[in-house]
C-alpha cells in the first residue's frame, strides 16, 4: 500500500540574496521532491538551475555519512570510518594538548556562509570558539567591503525593496549578474521595463544579464568609483542636482563637489575605457529619470578601491533626489531589516581580552606564518577555502602541514576536506531546522526539518553542542534546543517583527518583516538615514574611526580592528594590479582576470553534481579575439592561466563577451576535478580592498598561454 | 544551453511553464507552446512544472528528439508571447493519462 505523501514548508539554505521558499514532499520518510512555494511574493514557486535537483543532492552517493579519520597522506582524501565517540575523543585529546603547550589561540575556526541559516550558518561556531578562547577568524569573503563603504554614506539602511522596483523608471544593475546569481528579482525588473523603465547593466563581461540590458556599459575592472565620480561631475556641471534634497538631507556637498570636479568625463573615459560621451549620457539619463534605482552586486568590492566604489555609487541617489520616489534609490543588502541578536548568537562576552584576529582572506599566511602561537589546529565548517579563498597554493601548503590538526565538518569530500585529519558528517537542509534571513528581500523563512539525517550526520548546532560537552563546557546555553536558540536569537519586540511569531512562521513558511508597503515605501524620501547625522554623509563622520569590519563577521568581537585611514570623501584609487597602475608587473602578466559566479554552481557547491558539471563543462578561459590571436590561441585550445602565485588550465573560449585586456574564468570548479589540480583562485592575491577587508579577486594580472596537453 | 519544448506539449496547454518564466520566452499557438532560445536564460524554472514532461535541456535530447531544438528556434519567434496560463484544451487530462503522467 502506498504511504501518504506529506508536504512540509522549508527554505533555501544557500548564500544567495533570493532565499527561496521551499515545499518539501516526503513519502515513507524519504524526500521525493523539493519545489518552490508558488505563494511566496518574491520567489513565486521558481527555484533556480542549481536547486532544481536539490532532492538528488540530498541522496548524492558521495555524501559523508559517518565520522572518519585520515589514513593516507595529508590531502590525499583517504579516510576510514570511526565512531562519533572516537572522533570527539581524538579532537579533545589533540585540542587539550595544543592548549596546554601553545594556548587556546593556537586553534582557529574557518567558516563562512556555506549554510546561511540563523542557527546553522555564519555564527554557528562563534560561541563555542569564543568560549574555547581561539584566535578570532575574521570572515569577509563577500559583501563586507561594499557594506562598510555604504555604511559610511547611508548607514545600515535596509535599502529599496526589490518588490518596489516595478515602479522604477531607470534600473542600474551594477556589478551583478542577476540572471545567474539572484534571478528572482528579474520578474520585477521585467515588469518595470514593460512599464517603460530602461535597464542598464554595468559589467566588463557580457553576462546573461548584460545581454538582456537596454544598455550594457562595459568598464575596466576596478574603475567603478571613477565612473561614479564622473557621473557626479556631469550631474553637478549640468545642474542636475536636486538642490533641495541635498540641502535638507545630505552632509558635505561642497567637499563632494570638489572631489567630483577632479573627474571630468574625459579623465573618466581614460580610466574606465567608456567614452566621455557615454559617461555624460549615462549621468544625464540617471539624473533625469526620477525613480532611478541602483542595485549593487558583491563583485563591486573585489579590488583595491572596492569599498570606496560602493560608497561613491551609494551617494548618487541623494545627489539627484532619486530617494524621493517609490522604486528610486539604492539596494546593496536588505539584511538590516532582520533584527538578529548577534551578541546572543556569537557571545563576544566570552572572548578573553587581547584575543588576536586573523582575516580568513589570508588563511594561507595565517597557517604558514603565524607565530606566538602558530596555528596548530584549524576547524573548517560551512566553507571550502582551498577553492574559494585567494592564494590557493599557500592554503594547500598550510593545510598539508604535518603538525596542523585539521577538523572538517562537511557534506562532501571537498578540496578542503581532503586535508582533514578528522572528517565529520553534516546535514543538508531538509534534514535540519533553521530560520533563514535574506539579503535580497524582506521575508524571514522557516525551514522545517522534513526528513531524518542519513547515517550519522548532524546539524551544525548539534555538532557544537557535542563539542561543548566534549570540552567540558557546562553553561546552560549548550543545552538549548534549536527552537529555544531561535527564540533567543531574534529580537521579537522589534518593530520589524510586528505580527510575526515563530508559530506563524513555521506554519506559513515565510513572513514579511515590518518594513512598509512595497507600493508606497520610499525609505529616504525625507532623509532618515541611519547615520550619525541622520543625513546621507558625502563627507563621512564615521571615517575618522578608521577601517573596520562589523562584529558579526568577526565572532562579535570589536578588538584589534584594522583602523586604517579612510578618506572622508569617496575617491578613486587605481587597482593594485593593472597595466596602468603596475606597468612592470603587466610587462610579464598583461591581462586582468575576473572570476564571476558560474551559472550552474553556487560558489563551489553543486560543482560535484554530475548534472551541473555537464551543464557547466570544464573550466573555460574567456578571451577577447585580439588577446587570443596575439597568443596564437584558438577556440577550444587548452590554455594555462598563470602568474607568480600559481596557475590553472582551462579551455579557451574566444569571444567578444569580454573586453580586450580582460580574461574571465568561472569560480567554483573543484581543483581535484580539474586538469591542473588547481582552480581560478590559484592566481588570486590575498591583498585586501580598502574598506571592510574585502577580497580582491578582480584585481589580479595574469598571462595566458597555450598549455601542454595534460 | 536553452530549454526545449518537445511533442508531449501538443494538445494539452497546461501552461504552468509560462507564468514561472522570468523572461517570458514562451510563445504559443492553439495547440502548444515553444521556447525562444534567444530569450531563454537557462534558469530551469519551467522544467519541473510541466505535468507531461515536455520540457528538456537541449543536451538531454538525442536522436529523433533533437529536431525540437531547431523547431523551437524557428517557430517561437513567429508566434505571440504567452505570459499567462491559458485555458486547458479539451481532452488534455485524458491525453496526459494516455502518455503515462
What would you say this structure looks like, in words?
The complex is a heterodimer of chains A (710) and B (101). Chain A is built from 23 helices and 27 strands. With 710 residues, chain A is α/β, with parallel strands linked by helices. In chain A, helix 11 (265-272) packs across helix 12 (276-287). Chain A starts with a strand and ends with a strand. The model of chain A has no long low-confidence stretch (mean pLDDT 97). Chain B has one domain (3-85): 2-Layer Sandwich (Alpha-Beta Plaits). Helix content of chain B is 21%, strand content 12%. The mean pLDDT of chain B is 92. Classes of the chains: A alpha/beta (710), B alpha+beta (101).
Secondary-structure element series of chain B: EHEEEHH
**Biggest interface and its residues per chain?**
A-B, 19 and 15 residues
Low-confidence stretches of chain B: none
Main structural class of chain A: alpha/beta
CATH domain fold name of chain B:
Alpha-Beta Plaits
Silhouette of chain A:
globular
Keywords:
heterodimer; A: 710 residues; alpha/beta; Rossmann fold; Dimethylsulfoxide Reductase, domain 2; Barwin-like endoglucanases; 3 domains; six-stranded mixed β-sheet; 23 helices; 27 strands; globular; B: 101 residues; Alpha-Beta Plaits; two-stranded antiparallel ribbon; 3 helices
What secondary-structure arrangement, pairings included, does this model have?
The complex is a heterodimer of chains A (710) and B (101).
Chain A: E1 5-11, E2 21-27, E3 30-36, H1 54-58, E4 68-70, E5 79-81, H2 84-102, E6 107-111, H3 126-132, E7 136-138, H4 144-154, E8 170-174, H5 178-181, H6 186-194, E9 198-202, H7 208-211, E10 215-217, H8 224-237, H9 243-249, E11 250-251, H10 253-261, H11 265-272, H12 276-287, E12 292-296, H13 306-320, E13 329-331, H14 342-346, E14 357-359, H15 363-369, E15 377-381, H16 385-388, H17 392-399, E16 405-410, E17 422-425, E18 434-436, E19 443-447, H18 460-470, H19 482-489, H20 502-508, E20 510-512, E21 536-537, H21 583-588, E22 591-594, H22 610-616, E23 620-623, H23 625-630, E24 638-643, E25 646-654, E26 662-664, E27 700-706
Parallel strand pairs in A: 6-15, 7-14, 8-9, 8-12, 9-10, 11-21, 12-13, 15-16, 16-17, 22-26, 23-25
Antiparallel strand pairs in A: 1-2, 2-3, 4-5, 4-17, 18-19, 19-20, 22-27, 24-25, 24-27
Helix pairs in contact in A: 4-13, 8-10, 8-11, 8-12, 8-13, 11-12, 15-17
Chain B: E1 3-5, H1 16-20, E2 26-28, E3 33-35, E4 55-57, H2 67-75, H3 92-98
Antiparallel strand pairs in B: 1-4, 2-3
Amino acid at each position: 500500500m502506498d504511504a501518504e505523501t506529506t508536504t512540509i514548508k522549508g527554505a533555501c539554505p544557500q548564500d544567495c540574496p533570493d532565499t527561496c521558499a521551499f515545499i518539501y514532499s516526503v513519502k515513507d520518510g524519504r524526500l521525493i521532491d523539493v519545489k518552490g512555494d508558488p505563494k511566496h511574493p518574491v520567489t513565486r514557486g521558481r527555484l533556480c538551475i542549481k536547486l532544481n535537483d536539490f532532492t538528488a543532492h540530498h541522496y548524492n552517493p558521495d555524501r559523508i555519512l559517518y565520522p572518519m579519520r585520515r589514513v593516507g597522506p595529508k590531502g590525499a582524501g583517504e579516510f576510514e570510518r570511526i565512531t562519533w565517540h572516537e572522533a570527539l575523543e581524538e579532537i579533545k585529546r589533540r585540542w587539550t594538548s595544543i592548549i596546554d603547550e601553545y594556548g587556546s589561540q593556537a586553534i582557529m575556526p574557518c567558516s563562512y556562509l556555506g549554510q546561511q541559516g540563523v542557527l546553522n550558518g555564519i555564527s554557528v561556531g562563534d560561541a563555542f570558539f569564543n568560549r574555547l578562547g581561539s584566535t578570532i577568524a575574521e570572515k569577509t569573503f563577500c559583501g563586507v567591503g561594499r557594506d562598510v563603504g555604504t555604511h559610511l554614506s547611508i548607514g545600515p539602511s535596509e535599502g529599496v525593496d526589490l518588490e518596489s522596483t516595478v515602479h522604477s523608471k531607470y534600473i542600474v544593475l551594477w556589478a551583478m549578474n542577476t540572471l545567474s546569481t539572484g534571478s528572482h528579482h528579474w520578474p520585477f525588473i521585467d515588469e518595470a521595463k514593460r512599464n517603460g523603465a530602461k535597464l542598464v547593466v554595468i559589467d566588463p563581461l557580457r553576462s546573461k544579464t548584460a545581454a538582456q540590458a537596454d544598455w550594457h556599459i562595459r568598464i575596466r575592472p576596478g574603475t567603478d568609483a571613477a565612473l561614479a565620480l564622473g557621473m557626479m561631475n556631469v550631474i553637478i556641471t549640468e545642474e542636475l542636482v536636486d538642490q533641495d534634497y541635498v540641502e535638507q538631507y545630505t552632509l558635505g556637498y561642497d567637499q563632494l563637489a570638489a572631489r567630483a570636479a577632479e573627474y571630468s568625463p574625459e579623465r573618466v573615459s581614460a580610466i574606465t575605457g567608456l567614452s566621455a560621451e557615454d559617461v555624460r549620457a549615462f549621468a544625464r539619463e540617471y539624473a533625469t529619470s526620477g525613480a532611478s534605482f541602483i542595485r549593487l552586486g558583491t563583485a563591486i568590492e573585489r579590488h583595491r578601491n572596492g569599498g570606496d566604489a560602493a560608497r561613491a555609487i551609494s551617494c548618487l541617489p541623494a545627489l539627484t533626489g532619486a530617494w524621493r520616489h517609490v522604486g528610486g534609490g539604492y539596494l546593496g543588502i536588505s539584511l538590516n531589516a532582520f533584527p538578529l541578536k548577534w551578541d546572543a548568537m556569537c557571545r563576544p562576552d566570552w572572548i578573553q581580552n587581547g584575543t588576536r584576529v586573523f582575516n580568513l582572506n589570508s588563511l594561507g599566511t595565517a597557517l604558514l606564518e603565524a607565530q606566538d602561537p602558530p596555528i596548530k589546529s584549524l576547524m573548517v565548517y560551512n566553507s571550502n577555502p582551498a577553492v574559494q579563498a585567494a592564494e590557493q597554493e599557500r592554503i594547500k601548503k598550510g593545510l598539508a602541514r604535518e603538525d596542523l590538526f585539521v577538523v572538517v565538518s562537511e557534506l562532501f569530500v571537498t578540496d578542503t576536506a581532503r586535508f582533514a585529519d578528522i572528517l565529520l558528517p553534516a546535514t543538508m537542509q531538509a534534514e535540519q531546522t533553521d530560520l533563514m534571513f535574506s539579503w535580497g528581500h524582506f521575508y524571514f523563512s522557516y525551514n522545517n526539518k522534513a526528513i531524518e539525517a542519513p547515517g550519522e550526520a548532524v546539524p551544525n548546532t548539534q555538532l557544537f553542542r557535542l563539542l561543548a560537552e566534549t570540552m567540558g563546557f557546562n553553561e546552560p546555553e549548550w543545552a538549548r534546543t534549536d527552537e529555544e536558540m531561535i527564540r533567543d536569537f531574534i529580537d521579537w519586540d522589534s518593530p520589524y517583527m510586528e505580527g510575526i511569531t515563530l508559530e506563524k512562521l513555521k506554519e506559513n513558511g515565510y513572513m514579511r518583516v515590518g518594513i512598509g508597503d512595497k507600493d508606497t515605501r520610499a525609505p529616504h524620501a525625507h532623509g532618515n538615514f541611519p547615520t550619525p547625522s541622520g543625513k546621507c554623509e558625502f563627507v563621512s563622520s564615521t571615517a575618522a574611526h578608521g577601517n573596520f569590519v562589523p562584529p558579526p563577521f568577526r565572532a562579535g568581537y570589536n578588538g584589534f580592528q584594522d583602523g586604517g585611514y579612510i578618506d572622508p570623501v569617496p575617491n578613486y584609487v587605481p587597482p593594485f594590479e593593472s597595466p596602468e597602475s603596475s606597468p612592470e608587473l603587466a610587462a610579464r602578466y598583461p591581462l586582468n582576470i575576473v572570476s564571476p559566479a558560474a551559472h550552474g554552481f553556487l560558489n563551489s557547491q553543486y560543482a560535484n553534481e554530475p548534472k551541473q558539471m555537464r551543464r557547466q563543462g570544464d573550466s573555460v578561459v574567456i578571451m577577447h579575439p585580439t588577446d587570443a590571436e596575439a597568443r596564437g590561441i584558438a577556440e577550444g585550445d587548452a590554455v594555462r592561466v598563470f602568474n607568480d602565485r600559481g596557475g590553472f588550465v582551462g579551455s579557451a573560449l574566444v569571444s567578444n563577451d569580454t573586453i580586450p585586456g580582460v580574461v574571465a574564468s568561472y569560480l567554483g570548479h573543484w581543483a581535484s576535478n580539474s586538469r591542473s589540480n588547481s582552480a581560478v583562485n590559484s592566481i588570486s592575491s590575498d591583498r585586501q580592498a580598502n574598506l571592510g577587508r574585502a577580497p580582491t579577486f578582480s584585481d589580479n594580472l595574469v598571462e595566458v598561454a597555450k598549455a601542454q596537453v595534460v | 544551453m536553452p530549454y526545449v519544448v518537445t511533442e508531449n506539449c501538443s494538445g494539452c496547454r497546461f501552461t504552468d511553464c509560462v507564468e514561472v518564466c522570468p523572461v517570458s520566452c514562451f510563445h504559443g499557438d492553439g495547440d502548444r507552446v515553444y521556447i525562444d532560445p534567444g530569450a531563454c536564460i537557462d534558469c530551469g524554472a519551467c522544467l519541473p512544472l510541466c505535468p507531461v514532461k515536455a520540457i528538456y535541456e537541449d543536451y538531454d535530447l538525442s536522436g529523433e528528439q533533437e529536431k525540437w531544438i531547431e523547431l523551437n528556434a524557428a517557430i517561437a519567434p513567429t508566434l505571440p508571447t504567452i505570459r499567462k496560463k491559458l485555458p486547458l484544451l479539451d481532452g488534455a487530462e485524458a491525453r496526459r493519462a494516455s502518455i503515462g503522467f
